[in-house]
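Translate structure to sequence.
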């Protein structure tokens, strides 16, 4: 009986949290963010103010999910994420909440977002005011935007899978993140996201919740120097080697649990 009550509570709580997320996001998009854009004129300050609001909003949201008993969250090495300073944050991507959790932990986070969001009626202004990078830029422009963001001390979050992974399937990393890392000679911070039982994975509707509360473990791991991978004669070889190395790293981390 208690299990049934707990499941029903988490189902209702999940629905309420989704409603809060989209309703709250819409409220911010039509009130707070336009006000920041109106009051804060210098572009850099406007971007930092908008990103700060997003960071603190996500911190509140993740705290609410924990308070409602929908998730449990443990972060190992959180201090390393708070004290960034212009890195590539590379993480696996098992659930819909990954970017929300990471952005709640990283004070100055930068993201590469789908171009469709820039044309979205409600969110287009937000991603522009926040200075996020659109993914349909020409390769040279995309690389330059990433380099500028990291030079300004922002941590650029990238999920090398490109989309959420499917439970039980092997990780498949794309090469784009490796090219950005090598061409910018960036510092790479590895972050493993482990969620058990899995929730909000690829293809799952919001109401498909697990039988018990999901436990998220965020493990802040190694910090690499991309320049170390430049010993190969061709960048394409270095990129493939970096992809293989990180794919193996994350696979082993997840198997260790």
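Result:
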């Amino acid at each position: 009986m208690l299990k049934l009550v707990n499941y029903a509570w988490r189902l209702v709580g999940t629905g309420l949290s989704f409603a809060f997320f989209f309703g709250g996001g819409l409220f911010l998009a039509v009130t707070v963010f336009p006000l920041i854009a109106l009051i804060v004129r210098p572009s850099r300050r406007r971007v930092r103010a908008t990103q700060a609001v997003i960071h603190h909003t996500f911190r509140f949201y993740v705290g609410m999910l924990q308070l409602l008993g929908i998730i449990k969250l443990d972060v190992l090495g959180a201090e390393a994420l708070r004290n960034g300073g212009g890195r590539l944050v590379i993480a696996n991507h098992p659930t819909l909440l990954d970017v929300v959790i990471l952005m709640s932990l990283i004070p100055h986070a930068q993201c590469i977002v789908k171009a469709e969001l820039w044309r979205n009626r409600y969110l287009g202004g937000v991603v522009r005011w926040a200075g996020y990078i659109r993914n349909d830029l020409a390769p040279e422009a995309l690389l330059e935007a990433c380099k500028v963001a990291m030079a300004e001390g922002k941590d650029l979050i990238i999920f090398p899978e490109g989309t959420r992974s499917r439970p039980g399937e092997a990780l498949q990393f794309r090469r784009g993140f490796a090219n950005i890392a090598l061409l910018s000679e960036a510092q790479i911070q590895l972050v493993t996201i482990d969620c058990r039982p899995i929730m909000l994975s690829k293809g799952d509707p919001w109401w498909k919740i697990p039988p018990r509360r999901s436990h998220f473990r965020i493990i802040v791991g190694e910090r690499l120097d991309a320049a170390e991978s430049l010993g190969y004669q061709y960048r394409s070889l270095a990129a493939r080697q970096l992809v293989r190395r990180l794919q193996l790293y994350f696979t082993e981390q997840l198997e260790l649990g």
